[in-house]
Amino acid sequence: MFRLKVKENEKALLYKDEKLIDVLGVGAHKMFHLFRNYRVERYDTKDHGIDGEKARTLHRLYPELVEKYFTVVDLADQERAYICIDGNFTEMLSLGELKLYWKELDVTVEKVNVKADHKVAKDHMKYIDMYSATPRGIKKHIVAPTEEAYFYLDEVFVEVLGAGKHYFYTDLHDVKLQIVDTRVKALEITGQELLSADKVTLRCNVTMHYRVTDGMTYLTAVDDPYAYLYKQLQFAVRRHLGAKQIDALLSMQHTLSDDVLAELTKICESVGVKVEAVHIKDIILPGEMREIFNQVIEATKRAEAHNIARREETAAMRSLLNTAKLMKDNPALARLKELEALENVVQKVGTLNVYGGLEHVMNGMIDLTGNKA
């Protein structure tokens, strides 16, 4: 006789002649046979049971003992299971897995047929979130409020997913999500080179603001939607700017954007895109051409300045002529102008010698009519 002790945190499988005969709990157990005929396998109870190939072997060879001492969770090839012990989530079992839980544990099993239910139920998402890393066979995706997620199952479109968390089983299905951002986005073309109608090489910078209004069309109408929009904007700018001479381009710079927008609106609608605005920000000339244009502008402004000066001189002469006519027809006005001129002379002269008396000062010094001797 001998004693076999099992600790508080242990379970023991007792074999005699390599055959399982009992499952021992905590305590001291008396054996009445020769020790050499016995073998003991100890298990830590924190593992809650036995899994893997060992569990399958026990379940196959000793079904009665297993049913007596274990709660058996045996999953089909298309099933997963969420295991809660004593009301707390413990683990998730993979497809076709078998695990034996100690009988005294309060085990709750929630099975899921992942072949029929490809999406993880909301009640089960909280279990998956308890894992530090996403379990194998689970795909997680969070859709932002500004996005639309187009869900494909085995390459077949199923539905459009709204904002929020979405988890999927990928064991038996190919799951794919294509995300479309519904916000207004900017497409930039910088340094686009082209020839004007009069063969002047120039560069321009263009910005297009757009947003996706039909996500399915956007994803399926063309192979690469962004590249398609880029090329269409590029072609439209070339067509409209290349059809005009350089003088017209520079004079119409602020209205060219409207012409390009009108053309792109119809083209982009066919791929599920609404063009909000097109801006031709800069038209850049090469160095030699820019110098020539500067010279032209300088000559134009100089000519304008000469014209203005001549107009002002003519206006001044016309004013003097009118004044002279008034003075000729109005002696009193002429006398007032004489006195005004005399006042200016007196103010600027330091010493004034007067000959001929005050009469000569008042009437002889300033003569605007030419009639005084």
List keywords for this structure.
alpha+beta, 373 residues, single chain, Tetrahydropterin Synthase, Chain A, 10 helices
What does this protein look like?
The chain is elongated and about 165 Å long. Among the domains are: 185-285, 2-Layer Sandwich (Tetrahydropterin Synthase, Chain A); 287-329; 331-373, no CATH class. The model has no long low-confidence stretch (mean pLDDT 84). By secondary structure, it is α+β, with helices and mostly antiparallel strands. Helix 5 (225-242) packs antiparallel against helix 7 (256-269) and helix 8 crosses helix 9. A three-stranded antiparallel β-sheet has the order 3-2-5, with no helix packed on it. A three-stranded antiparallel β-sheet has the order 6-10-7. A three-stranded antiparallel β-sheet has the order 9-8-11, covered by helices on one side. It contains ten helices and 19 strands. The chain has helices at residues 52-61, 63-69, 122-128, 215-220, 225-242, 246-251, 256-269, 287-329, 331-348, 357-363, and strands at 2-6, 10-16, 19-24, 27-31, 38-44, 49-51, 70-74, 79-85, 88-93, 98-102, 107-113, 138-143, 147-153, 156-161, 164-169, 175-181, 185-195, 201-212, 273-284. Helices cover 36% and strands 35% of the residues.
Give the overall shape, derived from the CA principal axes.
elongated
Record field, number of beta strands: 19
- What assembly state would you assign to the polypeptide chains in this entry? single chain
CATH architecture of the domain at 185-285: 2-Layer Sandwich
The Rg value, from CA coordinates, equals 50 Å
**Biggest sheet: strands, sense, closure?**
3 strands, antiparallel
Low-confidence stretches: none
CATH class of the domain at 185-285: Alpha Beta
Query: Could you name the CATH homologous superfamily of the domain at 185-285?
Result: Band 7 domain
The secondary-structure class comes to alpha+beta
Give the rounded overall mean pLDDT: 84
- Major sheet strand order: 3-2-5
Q: Do you know the CATH topology of the domain at 185-285?
A: Tetrahydropterin Synthase, Chain A
* First and last CA, distance: 168 Å
Strand content: 25-35%
Provide the succession of SSEs: EEEEEEHHEEEEEHEEEEEEEHHHHEHHH
Helix content: 25-40%
